[in-house]
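Memo to structure team: turn this sequence into C-alpha cells by end of day. - J.P.
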Amino acid sequence: MQARVSATRMELVRLRRRLGLARKGHKLLKEKQDELVRRFLALFDGYLAARERLHRSMGRLAEHALLARVETPADEIRAAAWPQRACARVAAGSEPILNLKVPRYELAQPAWEPAYSPHQLSAAYDALALGWQEVVPLLVAVAQREKALRLLAGELSALRRRVNALEYTLIPGLEVSIRSISLGLAEQELSALTRLMRVKEMVRGH
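Reply from structure team:
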C-alpha cells in the first residue's frame, strides 16, 4: 500500500531531489554490475581453461602411476619416494577487482631432484614425480580462481538485489508519490483560482 504523503511544495522538492539521487545511484550501481559481470565471465573462462589443464595433467599422472606400479614393486617405490618428500608453500595475498578483494596465491615449490639411482626405478616413476611438479601449480591456480569466482558471485548477487530494489521499488514509489503530490497541488491551485474568481464576481455584483 502506497504511504500517504503531504501534498506540499516542500515535500515535492524533497522527493524530486531524492528521486534524482536514486536514479543516479541506480545508474552507478548498474554500471558496476555490468563491469563485475564482465570480470566474472573473463575469470570464469580462465577457470575453465585451468580446470581443463588440470584434468589432462591428472590423467597423465594416473597413467604414469599405473605404469610405475606395473614396472616396479610397491615397496621399492615407497622406499625411493620417502626421501623425495618436499613441502610446497603457498603464500596467500589479495588483489582488488573494483572495490572487492579477491585471493591471490603465490606458490613456492622446490625443484625436484631425484635422490635415487637412475637405475633404481623405472622411467615411469620419473615421469610420475615430474608430473606432480606440473599438477601442484595447476591445483593452486584452480583454487585461486574458484575462490575469486565465489566472492564475485556473492558480490553480484548483493549488487543485483540493490539494483532491483532501486529499479522496481524505490524509484517507482517515488515517481508515484511525486505524481500524487503534483496532482494534489494542481487541484489546490485550481480550487484557489475558482474561489478567487467567485470572490471577484461577488465584488463586481456589489
